[in-house]
Amino acid sequence: MMSLLCITIISLTLAGSVYSQATAHPTVKILADLGDNITLPCRLPPKDFMSFGSIGIRVKWTKVADDEALNEDVLLSMGFHRKTYGSFADRVFLEEQDDEDASIRMMAISMEDTGRYRCEIINGMEDTIQEVLLEVQPGLADGVVFPYSPSSGRYSLNFTEAVQACRDQDAVVASYDELFEAWKDGLDWCNAGWLSDGTVKYPITKPREPCGGSSNGPGLRSYGHQDKQSLYDVFCYASALKGDFYWLVQPDRLTFDEAVQACLDDGAEIAKVGHIYAAWKVEGFDRCDAGWLADGSVRYPISRPRKNCSPTEAAVRIVGFPDKMQKSYGVYCYKAEQ
């Protein structure tokens, strides 16, 4: 465990000489997961005449660079006047648990927040400096978050059904951190879905009126915790494949039952939605042929956008849930590692 220093400096000037007294207090490095909300601690000296709202007391938080000229201002407080700066604006707040608390609460932690932070409490002759090291741990890289709704349509899953729906697609219900990372990577989806903590959210990278309003900035829109019998979609998380996802070459188009059997005849199984997303996102799988999947949907993965094949963005495209007797599609298979 790494220790830093919290230093209280008392300076006295006598006949042109400066005398100072410093007391070191060990503090602990702060570890945070990507997307967390965390507190960076700092406290005012415990003096009866000093309190956070006192006139003349200034609190300044700075993100410290190796080159001091590149330091970033985080928050400045003088009495009851507060200001945050740059990328910290609107997501850094003073905790103020009591009159001596100058800690800050930092919301929606990103990898760029990693670094050393300095809290300076300035009160004339008696100043306090505390330093905190924040280390942000990256999210899971070898996987993919995808929105899911069944053949019954959007907003048809309670929480228990959502858990099972993801499991049926060889996935699990995504966590907040996983959805947050997916949003940072560009996931934009206007339908609200369950997360593993029982909350309901949806990620927006391109604000627009039907999706939380165009005046709100990009981010994760939240419905908060919902009754687990309420009906929504779900966000699933699929890890990297432990097997082979592939398009099965066939001379003719297949019904759904024929597609299932064709994969079995090839020593495999019909692929699940989690398989196609993992192959697309993690392995860059690209094919412009619509094929049956195990849930009865028809989809195709495009990692290289082009005309007639998702021309504007890389995505797993869904045709829908057609009549299973329709002979219009091929099939994607999955062969697990032995």
How would you characterize this protein structure?
The radius of gyration is 27 Å and the shape is elongated. The chain has helices at 159-168, 176-184, 256-265, 273-283, and strands at 3-14, 17-28, 30-33, 38-40, 58-64, 72-78, 81-84, 92-94, 104-106, 115-123, 126-137, 143-148, 172-173, 193-194, 199-204, 219-225, 233-239, 243-247, 269-270, 291-292, 298-302, 315-320, 330-336. A hairpin with a 2-residue loop joins strand 6 (72-78) and strand 7. It folds into three domains: 28-45 and 54-137, Immunoglobulins (Immunoglobulin-like, Sandwich), CATH 2.60.40; 143-238, Roll (Mannose-Binding Protein A, Chain A), CATH 3.10.100.10; 241-336, Mannose-Binding Protein A, Chain A (Roll). The strands form four sheets. Strands 1, 2, 3, 5, 6, 7, 10 and 11 form an eight-stranded mixed β-sheet that branches. Strands 12, 13, 14, 15, 16 and 17 form a six-stranded mixed β-sheet that branches. By secondary structure, it is mostly beta strands. It has four helices and 23 strands. One of its GO terms (molecular function) is hyaluronic acid binding. It is found in: Secreted, Extracellular space, Extracellular matrix. InterPro entries: C-type_lectin-like/link_sf, CTDL_fold, Hyaluronan_bind_Proteoglycan, Ig-like_dom, Ig-like_dom_sf, Ig-like_fold, Ig_sub, Ig_V-set.
